Amino acid sequence: MSRLTTGVISQNFNTHHDNIDNPDDSETHEPQPSTSGSSMAPVFLSASSGMSRPTEAARKRKQTSIIGYVPKKMTVDSKKKIDGALLKLFTKDYQLFRVVEDEGFKEFVKLLNPNYILPDRHSIFKTYIPALYEKCVVEMKELVEKEAQSVCMTTDCWTSRNNESFMAITIHFIDSNFSLRSVLLGCFEFNDHHTGDSIRGTLELLDKAPENLKGEEWIILKQMCQVLKPFEEVTKVVSGEKFMTCSLVIVLSQGLVDVCSKMSKMNYNPRVLDIVNKLLCTMLEKDTWKNLEKSRMLCRSTFLDPRFKNIPFLHSTTFLETTKEDIIENLTAIIRIKNNQTADRNEQIPPPDNGSEEVQNLQTFGHQSISIWDTIDHNAAEVQPSGTSTSRAIIEVQRYLEVAILHRNNDPSNWWRENSYN
């Protein structure tokens, strides 16, 4: 097979690289001698060679100018999109405004789009952020008017790192797509105490107070907060993860009944009193609530909690005696097991050493065993523990009840750790 001549190479340039000027390009090509030194005949271009000559238009096409790669001027829509993405750094990620003046950030943005000019931090918080706020207000008003048929309003109070107090007012509603939506109505400085009256006064800062809340209804809401506060406290206590809660169940249930009984006699709004009475009746009539003191596990836990002991059972002699007898019965069984273990260990103890070999020989002289320990061993064998296991259990329980009550903020586990009997 013959090698390609320079004429074929020229043909390849014209066919595949027509945008590059070929100084040797001409209408006809003279035969070129082979540079390989071979004696084979050179290859000439001809119509029969299967390589067609490129057209005149293809040969005249030029390489794209560098100006064609320069980015075009940024449109207004493109700038708005980039501005919106930039503002999310501050509205969503809470970045500082001065980030736009950092050299590294500037180089990063310039590499992404050299035509985009970063606004300075003063323009962001004086122009861009206020404009975005007004746009958001219009959108939220349209959303509420279109989707919110009824709303639930919540307030959230907190203190910033600068020790400044604020209160946010938010409404929540279900839209037509059954999606929960939340809209922030406002956020105000709140330097007063977090009481119902203070919050109510701050709510009046709204441009338009809720139409469905009247003066009497504000009073009802305030009283309902007082009614539900004990239930909130109980919920937090029984949800604790760092302390035991089993011994608190009976105490807390009694506390709720007692609180509701007192609130039912207070000078509340009739609608509030109706709710209080329903809560009280439900607690007193519900089987689960009434059967709490019938649970042995709950009664044992409460009785053995040094913060409460027998106090939660003083209202009922029956429950007190039942719980006390149950504790004594379990303690008796424990004492019995301890006594049996002690007796077994005593049987395994070898007889006492009566002295040296010479003394033992004197003791056994004349086939009689004489020891200085005879009297004490005989008397020790006749001595029995004072009282039965049951009587000892009764005494132990009585001693436990006579010890001062532990403060309810203390840890009962620590008390038992310090007063455990080995």
From TrEMBL:
Ranges annotated as biased composition (Basic and acidic residues): 15-30
Region (Disordered), start-end ranges: 1-62
Alphabetical UniProt keywords: Metal-binding, Nucleus, Zinc, Zinc-finger
GO molecular function, one term: zinc ion binding
Leader sequence segment: none
Gene Ontology CC annotations of this record: nucleus
Superkingdom: Eukaryota
Claim: Zinc is one of the keywords in the record: yes
InterPro entries in the record: RNaseH-like_sf (IPR012337), ZnF_BED_domain_contain (IPR052035)
Name the record gives this protein: Zinc finger BED domain-containing protein 1-like
